[in-house]
Amino acid sequence: MQKTLQLTDMVPEVVEGLKASNKSISSKFFYDAEGSRIFQEIMRMPEYYPTVCEAEIFETHKRRIGSLFCRDCCSVDLVELGAGDGLKTRILIRDLLEEKINFRYIPVDISQEAVTQLAGSMKQQFPGLAIETRIGDYFHMIGDLSREYPNRKVVMFLGSNLGNSNLDQSISFLEQLNRAMSDDDLFFIGLDLKKDPEVIRNAYDDPHGYTRNFNLNLLKRMNRELGADFNLDHFMHVPYYDPETGTAKSFLVSTRDQSVRLANVDDTIHFRKWETIYTEMSQKYDMEMIREMAEASGFRVVESFFDGNEYFVNSLWKKQA
Q: Which of 100, 124, 229, 281 is 20 to 30 Å from the Cα of 296, by its Cα?
């Protein structure tokens, strides 16, 4: 589950992005109630492979993954950043409990509602699970845990969430994470791999129209929350994938010269015909990129796990000595 960020709380950022020479609106605003509902539809469609692939990795390799988590230690804190509904994590948790591993599950999120719901469903499914929720900034939470508990922390960042940032931003995030972790801690990350470009295009421009609706919902939000008068018929959803760099991007494109009034903030945004609003990126990687990114941020790759099609990878990293 994503925390719903109100556009009204972020007006300067939203207006600045829309008035820039290269217009943009952050993908963090996708997830109002309607956006979250549409994203659930996206995850269920056959063209959207990441969730299924990562779940396959966990089912296929759970015993090996668990053994690496717990190698040479007697107690582990399983720390999940942005845990959402914990759907895939439950596969690992079930196996760790069956193997009688001494561990504690710690979901970390900025949303109190998200982690409260997750903790309740986890305790219902796994009554013996030791679970401790944390609300707030990722890096502070990991630093606090390192100071408070001597256990090894396995920090999990799943679902290719890192791919929503460019390479420089990703390395900066990973460097901060590295500094917050102790030497014996591990980092377990999910990353989307380069593959047949048609497979990627179908995931971000599906024949059902879900990804189109997901992007256009940003305009609906601005109409509702900022008093804007976007005409959705005058914008089109255009995804783009560069197989050389592995970068997938989504845009909303104005199909005519037009002006949009933001009544609640007393401002007007002008669009030229075919001008774009950049809404999202999703980076795809190869293993060389992953190794270089790990090393640049102070990690080394311990072992990596793939689904049968090698569409996705879950990679276990450790801090460099």
A: 281
Taking the model in full, what pTM does it have? 0.89
Burial per residue of 214-246, b for 16 or more beta-carbon CB atoms within 10 angstroms, e otherwise: bbbbbbbbbbebbebebeeebbebbbebeeeeb
What gap in Å lies between CA 309 and CA 315, rounded to an integer? 16
Residue type, 283: Q
Q: Which residue in this structure is represented by tokens 């015909």?
A: 273
Q: How many helices (H) and strands (E) does the chain have?
A: 10, 12
Amino acid in the structure at residue 121: S
Assigned token pair, 65? 């993954």
User: Rounded CA gap, 147 and 205, in Å?
Assistant: 45
Write the pLDDT tens digit of every residue in 71-98: 888 889 999 998 777 888 999 999 999 9
Task: State in Å, rounded, how far the first CA of the chain is from the last one.
Answer: 36
| pLDDT score, position 201 | 94
